[in-house]
Amino acid sequence: MRRSVLVFLLIAVAILTFLLHSVSTLIALLLEDASADAIQKSELPAPNSTLLTSRPQLIPKIIHQTYINESIPQRWQAAQQSCKDLHEDYEYILWTDAMALEFIEKEYPWFTTTFKSYPYPIQRADSIRYFVLAHYGGVYIDLDDGCKRRLDPLLSYNAFVRRTIPTGISNDVMGAIPQHPFFLRVIESLQGAKRKWILPYITIMASTGPLFLSVVWKKWMGEHADLESQSQNLQNSATSSLTEWKGRVRVLMPDEYSRHTWSFFEEYKGDSWHGKDAQLIFWMGKNWMLLTAAGQKRKGYAMVAPNGSPKLVPSRASSRASPRKGGFSSWRNWTMGGKAQERYELVEQHDA
Ligand SMILES: *[C@@H]1O[C@H](CO)[C@@H](O)[C@H](O)[C@H]1NC(C)=O
Ligand SMILES: *[C@@H]1O[C@H](CO)[C@@H](O)[C@H](O)[C@H]1NC(C)=O
């Protein structure tokens, strides 16, 4: 009797440890405010400042965007044009589906099978942006982000991403030098992250989308904590022209992203899909046990999740996460199949 209690306790502890380990990054992500790597307001010259010319340029002047083909829907043409107009001296590359596949086949043949086998086109749209940034460097911009000022000041970092509130980072605007170690890590991590999570929305978020990127980012910072703190010390010291850790990823905060006249971008999406991303991550954080159970069940740990128990009732998620229409209602539609596999429908929802 005693022994069986002990065995039970041991198993319970083992399971709990395992679960905690599985979600520790997710929990750490919820607590990460990115302040250590935030691009400070004082670092950025005003839009027409003469200080601009004194800043080094590290990231190449290339703007990457993606779409199915060259026929950009009318509602995004203004956004696209605003970026082109402000950056006539930048190279502009619109990665169509055909170009993306050709590029992967030629440059990253080890990824071709995974790339082709993604069930949702948005997963290809997500992953191709990491590859082109890792390969060519430059700045990736989602088609529904318009440009309000030149990106030049951001080119003086080795890499930057955009913060989302309340947690994590987005993959809609990112910049990097070619072969930046963080983006190399990102492309290396894609195959391992390709898993099914029952719901398409979560599958996409966690395999290629902002949640995937945020998790890799959080792990990246954890692994390089010593270099991180060195870089921060350098930044704060008088001799800050010394070499900074190249792998550091700076973070563009919401004010600099889109809120003000001096911000870099303008969202053409209206009802923000990204807000919902963050809300979903929060929701996932709160329900991590359920999600982990759901995820592990696929790997055969059925004891954690007896058949049918991990019900991720989408309607509850949608009502709690957001009273607005858009991503979540469409997300519910996906679970019913139908047009679930439509190309780029997540992108289509940006301006829902
Ligand atoms: C910067 O200068 C350009 C061209 O002179 C002008 O159109 C733009 O409004 C200025 N931007 C700001 C924020 O002052
Ligand atoms: C581009 O893709 C859209 C959506 O699938 C399609 O309606 C359109 O005909 C395509 N345009 C060209 C030029 O292939």
Strand content: 5-15%
> How many strands in all?
8
Helix content range: 40-55%
The CATH topology of the largest domain is given as Spore Coat Polysaccharide Biosynthesis Protein SpsA, Chain A
SS content category:
alpha/beta
Number of domains: 2
Using the coordinates above, name the CATH class of the largest domain: Alpha Beta
Mean pLDDT value: 78
CATH architectural type of the largest domain: Alpha-Beta Complex
Strand order of the largest sheet: 2-1-3-6-5-7
What bound compounds does this protein have? Answer: 2-acetamido-2-deoxy-beta-D-glucopyranose
* Low confidence ranges: 270-275, 296-352
What is the 3D form? globular
Largest β-sheet summary: 6 strands, mixed
Please give the alpha-carbon distance between the first and last residues. Answer: 60 Å
Number of helices: 15
Radius of gyration from the alpha-carbon trace, in angstroms: 21 Å
Q: What pattern of helices and strands is seen along the backbone?
A: HEHEHHHEEEEHHHHEHEHHHHH
Keywords: Membrane, Transferase, Transmembrane, Transmembrane helix
InterPro entries: Glycosyltransferase_domain, GlycoTrfase_DXD_sugar-bd_CS, Nucleotide-diphossugar_trans
Membrane topology: Multi-pass membrane protein
Organism: Lithohypha guttulata
Give short descriptive properties of this protein:
6-stranded mixed β-sheet; single chain; globular; Spore Coat Polysaccharide Biosynthesis Protein SpsA, Chain A; binds 2-acetamido-2-deoxy-beta-D-glucopyranose; 2 domains; two-stranded antiparallel ribbon; 352 residues; alpha/beta
